[in-house]
């Protein structure tokens, strides 16, 4: 996926929000914005949005002197999602098609994202998102393809996205009932889930949780640990959550099942769906 | 009003949109963004958002080599609003309180704005905005104060905001039935109305239309022509439309009736209302 200049304003907003989350005063906020603009002016023409995001959030951590600027925000998201877990289990238990329902829930969880503007931070707003996701028609519906691929699969590689969303992933993994390797980031970046975040969401009880060896957003295979690249090549099915995984893997040469909500114009346009769409896209299907 | 760093991402978005409106290729878009970031890094700490917007849009004009980058967008907005005029006249004719109804329409027109994201560009979306504005309770309701002040007033100074919105202003001016001086910008900036835009919206038939002698957004009195400063001091009532007029005049020492829709978090927070609020704020009332 090529760079979209529309992401530049978004990166500045993210830097500003991260500064405020960590109690930076106005002078420090301004200084961080200036340095973020230096980074953006220095970006090579071919860099992808996740690569630029990586530089911006490395700067944020360094400038604020904080290893994980989103730690509290992530912890709140996880707690919020855990509070909804019983209600989600109830919905799932009553669903006529449990796989589709669990997929819908996993996509609903993708709304927890401090990248685009407007992450729901209270229980009611998050639950309305869940309810909408249970009803809304998919813009791309490869659930039948996913269902077919799951038959006879021995292992699923599940590429996580954000903290909090992890709780929703847990339900899908339980529903799949296939041994799953759950892959989180090797270091903090934006509100992406790390090993700690996955543990707090209870993922260690349902999957083998590993980190990908890098703090680059999405799954930039060249930046990932060799072990992850091997797992990626060998897995029977790869499920990839969220926009950054789509941005980094949509051109790769093995089939990947992308589960995401198209949250911004840039991604929506690239996929060819309206903003707000629910997407189950088994891409790369014909290439293997 | 003090500077808000949240405006920085917004300015980059505006520069990018203006470049695209004028057919700039990706390299030129990137170049413009880089230069816009230079401008933002060079902004004095005390500059207000309209002052920064002025610098950004001066750069946009210069970099694109176009005197009025929003000319086509403004013309479309005016035509769109003119198409709604008969329906608006009908609503107004049937209104139990014609002043309040005309004020509501004038505020509804304030949604036509290429500054914040998401200007309605089709008739249906614009009309839904109008319909919502006719029903929605005011967050600040100084209509009674405005009504009182209008009694016995000999001249209204009406500070315009955007092209297209001008058509809505025309209805309010007709309803006031008091001699009115309608003030537009002295030169193109964003989609703010100029003399040409006001003429195309039919304002010359209902008011004395003058320009304020500057292309600074809002009404920056120090940048305006001396004549405008005199008119401003002497007018019985000043009605000021939109966010930029609020930003530049909210601390001034004479009463001003601000009519606006709070379209972004920055302004909404400053006024103390939720985003999306309709505001009729007769501010500075006690200072004269």
Give a verbal description of the structure:
- Two copies of one chain form a homodimer.
- By secondary structure, the first copy, chain A, is of the alpha/beta class.
- Helix content of chain A is 50%, strand content 11%.
- Chain A is built from twelve helices and seven strands.
- Chain A has a seven-stranded mixed sheet with strand order 1-7-6-5-2-3-4, with helices on both faces.
- In chain A, strand 3 (180-184), helix 9 (195-200) and strand 4 (208-211) form a beta-alpha-beta unit.
- The radius of gyration of chain A is 18 Å and the shape is globular.
- The model of chain A has no long low-confidence stretch (mean pLDDT 94).
- The A-B interface holds A 5-6, 8-10, 12-13, 16, 26, 29-30, 33-34, 37, 40-41, 45 and B 5-6, 8-10, 12-13, 16, 26, 29-30, 33-34, 37, 40-41, 45.
Q: Main attributes?
A:
12 helices; seven-stranded mixed sheet; 288 residues; homodimer
Q: Give the terminus-to-terminus CA distance of chain A.
A: 20 Å
Instruction: Tell me the total number of β-strands of chain A.
Output: 7
Strand order of the largest sheet of chain A: 1-7-6-5-2-3-4
Protein structure class of chain A: alpha/beta
Shape of chain A: globular
Q: pLDDT average of chain A, as an integer? A: 94
Task: Report the β-strand fraction of chain A as a percent range.
Answer: 5-15%
Helix content of chain A: 40-55%
Total of DSSP H or I helical runs spanning 4+ residues of chain A: 12
Oligomer: homodimer
Q: What Rg of chain A, in angstroms, do the CA atoms define?
A: 18 Å
Largest sheet of chain A: 7 strands, mixed
- Most extensive chain-chain interface: A-B, 17 and 17 residues
SSE string of chain A? HHHHHHEHEHEHEHEHEHE
Poorly predicted residue ranges of chain A: none
């Amino acid at each position: 996926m090529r760079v979209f200049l529309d992401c530049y304003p978004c990166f500045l907003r993210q830097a500003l929000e991260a500064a405020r989350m960590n109690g930076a005063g106005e002078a420090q906020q301004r200084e961080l914005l200036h340095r973020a603009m230096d980074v953006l002016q220095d970006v090579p023409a071919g860099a992808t949005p996740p690569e630029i995001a990586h530089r911006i959030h490395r700067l944020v951590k360094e400038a604020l002197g904080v290893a994980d600027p989103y730690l509290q925000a992530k912890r709140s998201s996880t707690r919020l999602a855990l509070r909804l877990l019983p209600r989600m289990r109830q919905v799932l238990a009553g669903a006529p098609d449990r796989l589709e329902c669990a997929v819908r829930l996993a996509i609903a969880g993708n709304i927890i994202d401090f990248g685009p503007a407007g992450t729901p931070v209270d229980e009611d707003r998050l639950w309305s998102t869940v309810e909408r996701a249970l009803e809304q028609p998919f813009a791309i519906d490869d659930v039948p393809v996913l269902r077919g691929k799951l038959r006879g699969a021995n292992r699923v590689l599940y590429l996580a996205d954000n903290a909090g969303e992890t709780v929703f992933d847990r339900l899908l993994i339980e529903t799949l009932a296939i041994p799953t390797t759950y892959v989180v980031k090797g270091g903090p970046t934006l509100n992406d889930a790390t090993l700690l975040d996955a543990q707090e969401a209870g993922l260690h009880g349902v999957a083998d949780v590993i980190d990908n060896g890098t703090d680059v957003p999405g799954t930039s295979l060249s930046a990932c640990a060799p072990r992850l690249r091997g797992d990626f090549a060998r897995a029977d099915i790869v499920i990839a959550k969220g926009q950054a995984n789509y941005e980094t893997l949509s051109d790769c040469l093995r089939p990947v099942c992308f589960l995401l909500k198209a949250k911004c114009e840039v991604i929506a346009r690239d996929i060819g769906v309206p903003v707000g769409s629910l997407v189950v896209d088994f891409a790369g299907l014909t290439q293997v």
